[in-house]
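Reproducibility note. Readers wishing to regenerate the assembly model reported in the main text can use the exact inputs given here. Chain order matters: entities are listed in the order in which they were concatenated for prediction.
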Amino acid sequence: MKEKPKYSLGQNLIYLSRVCRRETKALPVCTAGLVALELLNSLAGITIGPAILQKVEQRAPLAQMLLTILLYTLALAVFAAGLSYLRDGIHVFRSRLYDAFDRAQARKAAETSYPNTLDPAFHRMQELAYRVMGGTNVQTPPVAMVTLTGELCTAVLGFGLYLLLLKGLPPILLALVVGTTASGFFAGKYAGRWEFQTREEAAKYRYEMLFVTNTAMSNEMPKDIRLFHMQPWLMEIYDKALGLYRGYCGRRERRFLGAKAADVLLTLARNGIAYAYLVHTALTRGQSASLFLLQFSAVTGFTVWITTILDSLIALHRESRKLCGVREFLEWPEPFRMEEGEAVPRSLKGYALRLENVSFRYPKAEKDTICGMNLTIHPGEKLAIVGLNGAGKTTLVKLLCGLLDPTEGRVLLNGEDIRQFDRRDYYRLFTAVFQEHSLFSASLAANIAQSETDIDMERVKECVKNAGLEETIPQFPDGLSTNLGKALHDDGIELSGGQEQRLLLARALYKDASILLLDEPTAALDPIAENDMYLRYDAITRGRTAVYISHRLASTRFCDRVLFLKDGKILEAGTHEELLALGGEYAALFEVQSRYYREGGADHEA
Amino acid sequence: MKHEISMREAISLHWWAVRQWWDVEPKLFLSTCAYTLAKHLSPYVTIWLSAQLINELAGTRDPERLKFWVLLTISLTAALQLLTAVLYHWRQAVHGAEWELENRMQTRKMLDMDFSTVESPETENLLHAMRKHMMGNLYGFVDIHGAFTESIVGGCASASGAAALTVSMFARPVTAGSLQWLNHPLAAAGVVVLLLGMTVLSLVLSAKASENSAQLWPCSNIYNRVLSYYPNFCGESRRAMDIRMYEQQKVVLPTMERAAMYRKGAPAIAILCGRVAPYTAAGRVVNAVLTGIVYVFVCLKAWGGAFGVGSVTQYVGAVTQLCGGLSEMLGTIGRLPFNAAYLRDIRAFLELPNHMYQGSLPTEKRDDREYEVEFRDVSFLYPGSESWALRHVNMKFKIGSRLAVVGMNGSGKTTFIKLLCRLYDPTEGQILLNGIDIRKYRYDDYLDVFAVVFQDFRLLALPLGQNIGASREYDRDRAEDCLKKAGFGQRLASMGSGLDTYLYKELDEAGVILSGGEAQKVAIARALYKNAPFLILDEPTAALDPLAEAEIYSKLNEIVGDKTAIYISHRLSSCVFCDEIAVFHNGTVIQQGTHEELLKNRYGKYYELWNAQAQYYT
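Running the prediction on these inputs yields the following structure tokens for the assembly.
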């Protein structure tokens, strides 16, 4: 079940050092400083007691004793202050390393080829990488690995240092100390492994509770909850999961307690032997009490170093494995050409789009969504695409604008295969209004101009006017500077469905690209607003190449040509009138939609 | 950030919080207290025992006595460690679900609130403020039975333990002549004052550091918000197309860079390195000096012959423990007003009042479904809004009739439904059921009269059957029957686990994904299962294509049966079926009648609405 990670710990450390060199050189330097200060601090801390006691024990001159205290106090003050300052300050650099990864992830998610975003494997990796990089930045693998490397170095050096302090001790005693410590440690790990193995059980209970909480807190649910009396149902689910989770916590702690008890017994054995040996040597060799204190403290400190070494090594491996997920996401292969592709040659005469024997099948699907389609869209042509849900309308549009590449066949722009182009440059030819859209939590103007800094306000105002928003905007507290959404701005506003449609239209107008793609909104617009949108679409597409997905057949008559899609094929094509005259499926569908309007209006017309 | 909470209010808020948790689970406190006492007192036992051992080593070195002390030390230490471990894991077991217990309180409250309270700006503000506190780490409700209790109890335990071990430090007199002045009570008092002063100084410094770190809060606030917004934004599937067509990364990435808390030249760096870290570091210096002072005093006395070497370790250990415990406790007390900011919000949230009057009259269970509803001069203002959402609405429904409600967006249609289902109470006027003001009925009883498919209905990612019954226990035959009536029969037959199939994949990998149209059918089935005399459908076919839409409409009569049905729809073709149509405009009913009647008025709103759509089809 355990997969071998893609990169070894060493490879990941080298990778991290390269990222640090690029993003924040100071982080490794500060970490090294922390290592040095930790060691000095611990050395001063363990020797202060015995050193001063020695003076007391030997009844050294008063001044000498006070001087020792003074020196130690000074040293401890300096080390502690330095450590504290560095521990605070290093956050600056840790944060920079974290931010670099966070931005890289956001960039990858935003820039990856569109088909990747439909690939469940990519999604899983993205989710994993996001989860791993979530939480406080110190806990994320890149930052944690730098910190842990520092801790490991400190512990290894500290181990060596204490070995020097304990050099009088017989090796067998040291081996015993190492052995008991390591056994206690692994007993703890064993219990921890149980928690790891059962983590999905725990996650399941917690997820169920979270699900109920989110349901209760959601903006969309409260009406349904009240009208259908869902409260007892939801609380029952919560309480059942809570009971199981508390039971789980109890079982988990009993396991940990068992391990801890074993550790206590081992400590008992170790301390007993160390005490016996040290007291014995103190008696037989006549060593001082302060030396006894030093050695005993060193034995205790020694065990701490051993535990730290083991702990940080295990943690490093764990974090390294997590980092592999992040790297795999960031390095996920890209099927599309981006910067390395050719620039799209600009043409003043407009662009002809051609599908040549195009078939498309979604990964793991059983049949093609688009089958062997041939289609030419001439510059300046207005094309409507109609069909039932699932006929392939949206997929066809995605193929045209290069969000998807055909499984078979080619998509040609003025006769050239679009696959050779820089895909991002190709996208610049299009402006689109899709059903699924993306607006920022930023000002309305920024959302229209798609920029926070470079906004042509005159043009924004013109687009607002043409989209029919000019009377709406002044109603908002700051006009066009009003922020959208509360995610980033406490004073952000929410738009109604109709206002949102118009904002999307204004944004499309602002981009002013050669080819317009419109997926007609199915959102509930009232008849008058709906009609107004049709007329605006008609006005703005005049003289432009436009492809229009139509759900209500009412709008097709604005178009030069209507394609009726069924099962991924163009079943009928022609103008609205031609298709009605043909009397095929398009005409039948139109009949279904129009029946009641005609019958309903009949008495009145008559 | 100003924290205008007085110490007095802070204490009362904390006391409130303690009571809340005590009611939830007293063991939360008991386990913390027991563990804290063991943890804070057992070091003193070890300190005292090793002091005896060292004293013996530095003194007569009697092997028998040494053996006794060694055995006592290691066995007692082990016993105490074991006790502490038992108490620790008990505490962990009890506290394992602490967040879930807190969330339970919030969830329960959210479910018990009136709908109008849920939607009120006050609730939204409180929830928002609570989230902000969590992001700013000023978060301390769950800490009440954890860190808070621990530092108070631990501080007291440390103080009493240390006091017991240090009394003798002052009591034992110095014998050496030159240091006799140490025996003077003033010397002891001086040392105590000095130590207290240092402890207070270190507290002042750390308070200053945390006060200054509050200046970081605005920086971290925007940073955290951007951080929790934009990376997810980039990964959201529904945004994927727009992001690419509009190159939105060109907005996202620079914004993330600008918001980065510690980017080069950011003000947060100066605050952290200039105003926070130095104070924390200075606090450490004070602590080191404090230890030095203790050493000087104790060693001078030992040097003067007051006690042995071992006692030096005992006193130094005890005094440093004491200062640590004291400063932890005082620090916690000093932070009370800070911590109380969150407590104040969560208390306000948990104590949000329900304003709706709850009547006691049961609704009649009538088999003949003779229910009559009347709106009598009803007006309604949304809380915090200044314009009327409904104004002087008068309406009476005929039993068993089909009513269509039409009008432009924002004309008051949905508000009308919300008032009818008593999600809100009218601001003016009254709504009557069988001639009695609906406020006089028992609320739950009244809601049973209605089954609604809201436009923004949601199904839960739980088994299909439970969704239909809105309960864990439900009538399977009836659920199946309702699904068939709603046109979901075929799809149900294709589901492996039938009614036990989970919807969506959130809670079960094997769950099914429903298309918009399928979800709508399930929602209709859920409404049918309720078998209420009134069936209300708000845009029931929005997500459907023309054929599916026609299918639903053709079956509506069969689905509705003898119930009273109310439709809200923008597809006016559906109005043709209805016995009566009410046209809403700017919050009032401006036209009412049958389709034919309304269409006759060429200047009426209905004609305008109808024509806007019909022009394309005729």
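We highlight two features of this model. Chain B is about 60% helix and 10% strand. Residues 459-531 of chain B form a domain with the Rossmann fold fold (CATH 3.40.50.300).
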